[in-house]
Amino acid sequence: MLNNIAALIGGETAAVGDYESIQTYTIGAGGSASITFSSIPSTYKHLQIRALGRTDRAVSLPGLGMRFNSDTASNYSDHSLVGDGASASAGSDVGVSYIFLARYSGSSASANIFGAGIIDILDYANTNKYKTTRNLGGTDLNGSGQVTLQSGLWRSTAAITSIQLYADISGNLAQYSSFALYGVK
What we know:
Elements: H1 2-9, E1 19-26, E2 34-37, E3 46-53, E4 63-68, E5 76-83, E6 88-96, E7 99-103, E8 115-122, E9 131-140, E10 145-154, E11 163-167, E12 178-184
Antiparallel strand pairs: 1-12, 2-11, 3-8, 3-12, 4-7, 4-11, 5-6, 5-10, 8-9, 9-10
């Protein structure tokens, strides 16, 4: 079902068999500062990350950051639309060192509450253009929380061969957070 939802969001009709698992991570005891999908083959049209995440940062809705090919320079931008059930807002970051992803759950949220997200990385192997991303994600905090629709840009024509995800600003990805990378045919 997640494949079909992701395909609808993408505006394309994709069959379940159009997604191939490349790598998965589940965070163990003690957490982890980051995870890196590496040695990504260039044989797919797009990539997709499916995330269930939580950080140990002591706020309800911390974010996650994403970088490509170990690039920590200010080559990224992102835009977001955010809703919390009572209001909506929009924001952007330009010339930053990572793409900000949707809010996930932090340690001040109720135990065992995780945020979820689907991150599409479009034309990741195309060396003739900058790379774009889209992300649909959010967290329900038992009546509060957020849902976010975002786009991101990495100003590089390099093919993406590695993707790093980490807890935005500070902290660690919490135990049981899970990240799966898929290739889209």
